[in-house]
Amino acid sequence: MHTIDLAYVGRGPHEELVTYIADQENFYADEGVHVALRDGCVWPAEKLRHCAVIGLGRTVLSRLNDGIPWVALNVNTARPLFWFLARPGLTSLADLAGKRLAVTPPQTGPGIFTRIVLRQAGLDVDRDVETVVRWPGDYAMDLRWLREGKVDAAMVGDTMAPEALAAEYGWEVLAFVGDHFQIPTVGVAVDPTHIDPDGPAVQAVVRAHRRALQVIQKDPETTLRYLQTFLGRHTADEVRAHYEKFIAPYFSTDGHTDLAAAEAGLAAVAAELGVPATFTAAEFYRTATTTP
Q1: Is-above-0.85 flag for pTM?
Q2: 83-86 vs 33-39, strand pairing mode
């Protein structure tokens, strides 16, 4: 049996659900690979490049900023699962002008996405919004600050079901990031300098993840059972509503991605970073085939 280290660089179903299904359904074992799951959330890029990595947003930033030649071999979704939650009285992204927004740092994927989406709404994060910088995690402190009135809004990930929380606390969902900006954010990426993209362990992981994507699309009840383990604060109905609105419609059926949309996403990220786009979507997202 082959072995491989697989690192996640974020938390929540967005990052972990496909991997979790592949493990729990024994797809890794079926494909002949033993996967050691590693927490790479705070690892530097130099350490991450010795593992296969789930987070595609971070590897894009790393390739643009550091020149590490990451390639993505599988894409779970091109809809970043992040939301803007706001206190009552704010009803649009434009209403964030002059307000306090809890947001992840600009060097992170979610931070870049936030800046792109707010710029589309006519807001410059550095000039028009008072940012309260929070490192991405489970977003529990962001929610506490929103409840306490320390911030007016927060950009949060899917460690919770945002629409259910908004209904519970009387908040507003100002926007789903995936409605405003598309770029592949999770899947499987490797640095060919250290890990052969066509190697048997990597290809086994890709095949296992594509089987897990099929479960998400074809077996909702199994998927909901696993999704509930991530969203334990929510009722079964709330978890189902989150799955039906944000996961089933947007997760890939085959691990491939729309290269034209990805190209536009890469260009937007590079422009926000102020660096040249030195590679194309086709060079980065090599998702067409797997080997047996």
Answers
A1: yes
A2: unpaired
2-79+183-284: CATH architecture: 3-Layer(aba) Sandwich (3.40)
**pLDDT class of 290 with cuts at 50, 70, 90:** low
3-state SS assignment for residue 235: coil
Q: What is the CATH number of domain 83-180?
A: 3.40.190.10
206-245 confidence digits (pLDDT tens): 999 999 999 999 999 999 999 999 999 999 999 999 999 9
190-212: b (≥16 Cβ within 10 Å) or e: bbbeebebebebbbbbbbbbbbb
- For 53-106, the DSSP string reads EEEHHHHHHHHHHH----EEEEEEESS---EEEE-TT--SGGGGTTSEEEE--T
| DSSP state for residue 138 in the 8-state scheme | S
**DSSP structure class, residue 246:** I
